[in-house]
Amino acid sequence: HVQLVESGGGLVQPGGSLRLSCAASGFTLDRYAIGWFRQAPGKEREGISCISSSDGSTYYTESVKGRFTISRDYAKNLAYLQMTSLKPEDTAVYYCKADLFGLDYWGQGTQVTVSS
Question: Would you say residue 2 has pLDDT above 90?
C-alpha cells in the first residue's frame, strides 16, 4: 500500500520550533522531489518548500525563508521540515508531497497551531 504520512505537528507558542516528518511506505522517496505545502483556514493551499531528488537543491517561499529548513534522509525514507521562530500566521495544516515527473503522492496532513 503506497502512502505518505506526516507527523510532528502540534500546538506551539510563538517563537517555538517543530519538526515535521514525512514518511513513505510502499515506495522509496529517493527519486522523488519532495514538497511541503500548507493550508490555513479559509485560504488556498500554498507551496512553501521543496527539495529536489537529484542535487538536493531547495526552495523556500519568502514567508518561511530563514526560518524553515527542508531535508531528506534517504536511508530512512523520510523527509523533514524543521520549523523555527514560528509565528501565529504559520498556523495551518501541513502536507508533504512526493513528485516524480507528475506522478505524485500526498499525505493526509498534520495540524500546526502557533498560539500563546
Answer: no
